[in-house]
Amino acid sequence: MATYLPTLKQLQYLVALKDHGHFGRAADACFVTQSTLSAGLRELESLIGITLVERTRRVVRFTPLGLRIAEKAQRVLREAEELGDLARAAGKPLSGDLRMGVIPTIAPFLLPRILPKLRSAWPDLKLYLREETTGAACDSLHRGHLDCVLLALPYHCGDIESVDLFLDRLFVAFPEGEMEGPAPGIVADDIDESRLLLLEDGHCLKDHALAACNRPELRAEAAMLGTSLHTLVQMVDNGLGVTLLPKMALDAGILENTHVVAKPLDADHPARRIALAWRRGSPREKEFKLLADALREAE
């Protein structure tokens, strides 16, 4: 057994450098000076007797073994953090810090409704929110940067547990007079693929919308890609095409002061599942289920 072991601080420096690829930015993320971070990494390399990082003026390049050790260090840091989670879980539920990721097609529409209710119900909870696309949020969850994620399913997010909160119906949004008729909804076959506007890649709502329509050719034929639902609504309002919107965005008033009309999508599976997800085996599982109940009631 080695007499000396790496410290958690040294491992934190190593993981930060791996994440940021730059000594200055890694030091800022660790709230230390660059010289302190560099010295800590040199001590780590001296301790284990190998070079982890090749240093040049322009590039930070990890050695193959350095990459493997950084990945292991990330797991060690996450396990160390969960020691504190165990203590918190045994104490007062939903108190202290909790880092929750929220995807962009949920955050601006649901959070204003639920946050005041959460603050009222759980005044000791310090909720730190981070808005990321689904893939980035899942990656942050497994890296230990987030404790849980509010997202839309189905989506492959890795080894997680999740609780469904509610269904969010999809609607077809179009300029006034373009697709209006006596039918209460719009079937997917009535959508003109040459006028379909979708979110850019990285937003799972795009995949949910296409899956609900069950028309694979729409992915290739989509006329334009938007960076947000608000951008898509402005495109539709200017006559550039039609798009698909979730009910929560409509409830939040996304179509106010526009000449855009929305009708329910008439399909076999016309909704996405809004869920709360966390790492499988997390010691805070009971807390997350309690939070899921609170989110469901607040919605």
From TrEMBL:
<dbReference type="GO" id="GO:0003700">
    <property type="term" value="F:DNA-binding transcription factor activity"/>
</dbReference>
<dbReference type="GO" id="GO:0003677">
    <property type="term" value="F:DNA binding"/>
</dbReference>
<keyword id="KW-0805">Transcription regulation</keyword>
<protein>
    <submittedName>
        <fullName>Transcriptional regulator</fullName>
    </submittedName>
</protein>
<feature type="domain" description="HTH lysR-type">
    <location>
        <begin position="6"/>
        <end position="63"/>
    </location>
</feature>
<dbReference type="InterPro" id="IPR005119">
    <property type="entry name" value="LysR_subst-bd"/>
</dbReference>
<dbReference type="Pfam" id="PF03466">
    <property type="entry name" value="LysR_substrate"/>
</dbReference>
<dbReference type="Pfam" id="PF00126">
    <property type="entry name" value="HTH_1"/>
</dbReference>
<dbReference type="InterPro" id="IPR000847">
    <property type="entry name" value="LysR_HTH_N"/>
</dbReference>
<dbReference type="InterPro" id="IPR036388">
    <property type="entry name" value="WH-like_DNA-bd_sf"/>
</dbReference>
<dbReference type="InterPro" id="IPR036390">
    <property type="entry name" value="WH_DNA-bd_sf"/>
</dbReference>
<keyword id="KW-0804">Transcription</keyword>
<comment type="similarity">
    <text>Belongs to the LysR transcriptional regulatory family.</text>
</comment>
<keyword id="KW-0238">DNA-binding</keyword>
<dbReference type="GO" id="GO:0032993">
    <property type="term" value="C:protein-DNA complex"/>
</dbReference>
